[in-house]
Amino acid sequence: MIINKDQRVGIFIDIQNLYHSAKNLYNARVNYKELVRNLLAGRKLIRALAYVVKAEGVDGQAVGDAESLQRRGLRSNSSEASFFKALEEAGLELRSKDLQIYPGGMKKADWDVGLAVDAIRMAVFLDVIILVTGDGDFLPLVDYLRWGLGRQVEVAAFTRTTSAKLKEVPDMFIGLEDIPKILLKK
């Protein structure tokens, strides 16, 4: 696998997957600034996207970032708003959508299709696509980006919660637990 400083890199982070893996495996949070720095390895960052689901609004709480809530005369004391702000401060561009709750109480919250479409759409101006997820549903995306579009694909995730196939098919798999300073203990 080739790594050179002139490669144009796009990073696509499945926040739900990463957040829950870090919490359940290590009772920790992810240091996203350190994550991006390590994944880039001195290459050119074109875009770093974080895919999040807003859970607020479900229990009658206001939905939106702190600034937009303030403009509407509402307050947010939410840890979710603080988390989203921290992601942005780490240099990540947020793509967000609301949690969907169906009659009967079933909840749905994933960005799989949106992340895949963004990666395919942006692949035309990227040399390397880094998917930060352990979700095996992304196998067809990895195959298409590598063989259909000829892009270098790297997958970064916590080894213990990553689909076995997803570790094998990319050009490189990066075990996040091996990156120093990636975990912040709660």
Tell me what the structure shows.
Helices cover 34% and strands 26% of the residues. With 186 residues, the chain is of the alpha/beta class. The chain has one domain: 5'-nuclease (Rossmann fold). The strands form 3 sheets. The chain has a 6-stranded parallel beta sheet, sandwiched between helices. Strands 2-10 form a two-stranded antiparallel ribbon. Mean pLDDT is 88; it is low at 57-64 and 71-75.
- Fourth-level CATH superfamily: 5'-nuclease
CATH class: Alpha Beta
Question: What is the radius of gyration computed over CA atoms, rounded to a whole number of angstroms?
Answer: 17 Å
Largest sheet: 6 strands, parallel
**CATH-level-2 architecture:** 3-Layer(aba) Sandwich
Q: Given the helix and strand composition, which structural class is it? A: alpha/beta
Q: Count up the domains.
A: 1
Strand line-up across the major sheet? 4-3-1-7-8-9
Determine the fraction of residues in helical runs and give it as a percent range: 25-40%
State the total count of DSSP E strands: 10
| Overall pLDDT score | 88
* CATH structural fold name: Rossmann fold
Please work out how many helical segments DSSP would assign: 7
State the low-pLDDT regions, or none: 57-64, 71-75
Strand content: 25-35%
Through-space gap between termini = 36 Å
Q: What would the principal axes of the Cα set say about the shape?
A: globular
The helix/strand order is: EHEHEHHEEEHEHEHEE
